[in-house]
Specification:
Chain A is α/β, with parallel strands linked by helices. Chain A is built from 23 helices and ten strands. Chain A has one domain: Methylmalonyl-CoA mutase (TIM Barrel). Chain A starts with a helix and ends in a 9-residue tail after the last helix. In chain B, α1 packs across α5 and α2 packs across α3. Classes of the chains: A alpha/beta, B alpha/beta.
């Protein structure tokens, strides 16, 4: 029998199975069910009461592959967590560099395996702690880093050749990366030995997180400069973490998170190719970052679909030949947006379910949120529970023993296929808008996300979706919990420190370094070498930001609601 | 931006309540601000939304120019103890102590009390249904606004 005629027979059998399934579903649909509940996912996708083998298109094995094999639906490593557990990486930062340095040492001493820097809003926007726009925000939501001096303090006593560090910074990513490289040099560590990730994903800033500086095109140029510089000098460094997290936190659905993030990924690849780089020279260092929400199976399916789509597009559309370019490696974080202020200890349970979804989705690293994060930055106690949640998951539940344990589940495979289809259809919508950058400038993504967010809020407010403690099972009075408070000391200490730095440094050398940076930008050269010299010459974050702003201008958001 | 049609104004007012929803400081979290702006609009108020990264000066200027009744700040960055009093002072200096300054975000309860003593109205924490702030503004308007 030829292959095609075998397919015809299988096709006929499948038709019969589907007719049979449809008849059975009709029967089931007449049975009584709870009527107070909406049986769609948290993203609003309706799901069947049960999934059957005939719900899957033929060719499942080709679509999934084995763990470690193209298209990596089942994971990027053949041994998955038997080979190596995911990295437990808790995002942390508050106050001054000294305060956060203490928190890092605390986390490392309790079994955390990687560091992750949370910067304060002024730093995220490229303002020094003593800039007027920083008033009231220094050290509040993260650590204040205004110069190489602060970066050195942050990692004091932590050998940068031995740890892997993730830095959540985007608008001024290149500047903070240069501070980090310069701090490592002063520890005697060459950039080639540095391991870690810088978020550096400006497209999702425009869509969702909103910590931008320059307009899209110059911002993308600096990102490609980073790809280029790091491929030569810091080959172990992940130059970008293409992030769905913030898109989801801003209220998107799971499919939007998946599609918008991958579309951003493709946009970065295309910009690298336009620069004339070989896709395999930079694609292996593109990493991803997903939100893990509470809709358990949808989240697992999202991560499985993400790997498959990336692999297919990188190989098929962009001609990557190195399997490392095809493999999507990602960090994940439990969904901050799912936590509620009412009965906050219940958040421990939400986080634990979400963390399990991340492990079943095959994450490479994970941050588990602390239960008190809807109220304040987490305390040492709440952070310890969050970290212990991961350790219990890894060592007591057995999830780490088997690769992709949900592979072959008719439900999860059907959801994975559907996620891929929804993403492909959203890619077509984005193309119809003229591509990612045009759609951002028109506010298209922002509206899609705001509409999804509004739909979810109205579902909760109308009681169509229940959230424990919010619109169901409420308590009269919540027991108060201890929260972390950050005063104005950080701002005052930072002001003094920056004044000291400006007085002490060689002003002529700093000016010269900034003039050279401006020249590099004007002549459209790679700006990283000159920026690194600015860091070494003790130029501050805002000085570097401002030097380039004079040339590149600044981004203006389309305002709507 | 303003909505062209407004209905449901408080019974004694011939016009809708005007509200400025603002995001002060560098905090980029605008999911809540946008949900609130849309909910107030749907409740029949005239809503102006400033967009992100506004200084207190920009907010006070916009409030006076748009001649709003209510200014609502959304702050999730922990900077509320600096930003609320600053906006209150600027509104007062601009001759508008009558404007209601309210808002929400991640604000501990004892800070809410301190801010209330500084001339700030009720503040709303995470998980508040939009109906609670609509009721609050409508009842404030009924007590404080005339045509």
């Amino acid at each position: 029998m030829t292959t095609s005629s075998r397919r015809d027979v299988e096709g006929q059998e499948l038709e019969e199975l589907r007719r049979d399934a449809a008849a059975w579903r009709e029967h089931v649909a007449r049975l009584p069910v709870r009527d107070e509940t909406d049986f769609s996912t948290i993203s609003g996708t309706p799901v069947e009461a049960v999934y059957l083998p005939s719900d899957l298109e033929p060719g499942l094995e080709d679509r999934t592959g084995r763990p470690g094999d193209f298209p990596y639906t089942r994971g990027v490593h053949p041994t998955m967590y038997r080979g190596r557990l995911w990295t437990m990486r808790q995002f942390a930062g508050f106050g001054t560099a000294e305060d956060t340095n203490q928190r890092y040492k605390f986390l490392l001493s309790r079994g955390q395996t990687g560091l992750s820097v949370a910067f304060d809003f002024p730093t995220l926007m490229g303002y020094d702690s003593d800039h007027p726009r920083s008033l009231g925000e220094v050290g509040k939501c993260g650590v204040a880093i205004s110069s190489l001096e602060d970066m050195e303090t942050l990692f004091d006593g932590i050998p940068l050749g031995d740890v892997s560090t993730s830095m959540t910074i985007n608008g001024p990513a290149a500047m903070l990366f240069c501070f980090y490289v310069a701090a490592a040099e002063r520890q005697g560590v060459a950039p080639a030995r540095l391991r870690g990730t810088i978020q550096n994903d400006i497209l999702k800033e425009f869509m969702a997180q909103h910590a931008w500086i320059y307009p899209a095109e110059p911002a993308l140029k600096i990102i490609v400069d980073m790809f280029e510089w790091a491929s030569e000098h810091a080959p172990q460094w992940n130059t970008i973490s293409i992030s769905g997290y913030h898109i989801r936190e801003a209220g998107s659905t799971a499919a939007q998170e998946l599609a918008f993030t991958l579309a951003n990924g493709f946009c970065y690849v295309e910009h690298g190719l336009e620069r004339g780089m070989d896709v395999d020279a930079f694609a292996p260092r593109l990493s991803f970052f997903w939100d893990v929400h509470s809709e358990f199976f949808e989240e697992v399916a999202k991560m499985r679909a993400a790997r498959r789509i990336w692999a297919r597009h990188l190989r098929g559309r962009y001609g990557a030949k190195d399997p490392r370019s095809w493999k999507m490696r990602f960090h994940s974080q439990t969904a901050g947006v799912s936590l509620v202020a009412q009965q906050p200890l219940n958040n421990v349970v939400r986080v634990a379910y979400q963390a399990m979804a991340a492990a079943l989705g095959g994450t490479q690293s994970l941050h588990t949120n602390a239960y008190d994060e809807t109220l304040a930055l987490p305390t040492e106690d709440s952070v310890r529970i969050a970290l212990r949640t991961q350790q219990i998951l890894a060592h007591e539940t057995g999830v780490a023993n088997v690769a992709d344990p949900l592979g072959g589940s008719w439900y999860v495979e059907a959801l994975t296929d559907r996620m891929e289809q929804e993403a492909e259809s959203l890619f077509a919508d984005i193309e119809a808008q003229g591509g990612v950058v045009k759609a951002i400038e028109a506010g298209w993504f922002q509206r899609q996300i705001a509409n999804a967010s509004m739909r979810y809020v109205s579902d909760v407010e109308a009681g169509r979706r229940l959230v424990v403690g919010v619109n169901a099972f409420e308590e009269e009075q919540d027991a108060p919990i201890e929260i972390l408070r950050i005063g104005e000391q950080a701002e005052n200490r930072q002001r003094e420190r920056l004044a000291g730095l400006r007085a002490r440094r060689d002003a002529a050398r700093a000016d010269q370094a900034m003039a050279e940076l401006a020249r590099a930008a004007r002549e459209d050269r790679n700006v990283i070498p000159a920026m690194l010299d600015c860091a070494r010459a003790w130029c501050t974050l805002y000085e570097i930001r401002h030097t380039l702003e004079e040339i590149y201008g600044s981004y203006r958001e389309p305002v709507f609601f | 931006m303003m909505t062209p049609e407004s209905h449901a104004q408080p019974r004694h007012l011939a016009r809708p309540v005007r509200v400025l929803v603002a995001k002060p400081g560098l905090d980029g979290h605008d999911r809540g601000a946008k949900v609130v702006a849309a909910a107030l609009r749907d409740a029949g108020m005239e809503v102006v939304y400033t967009g992100l990264h506004q200084t207190p000066e920009m907010i006070a200027r916009a409030a006076v120019q748009e001649d709003v009744d209510v200014v609502g700040l959304s702050i999730l960055s922990g900077a509320h103890m600096t930003l609320f009093p600053r906006v209150r002072d600027l509104l007062n200096e601009a001759g508008r102590p009558d404007m209601l300054l309210t808002g929400g975000g991640i604000i501990p309860e004892d800070d809410m009390a301190t801010l209330h003593a500084r001339g700030v109205g009720q503040l709303f924490g995470p998980g508040t249904p939009t109906s609670a702030l609509i009721e609050y503004i409508e009842s404030w308007a009924a007590d404080n606004l005339t045509d």
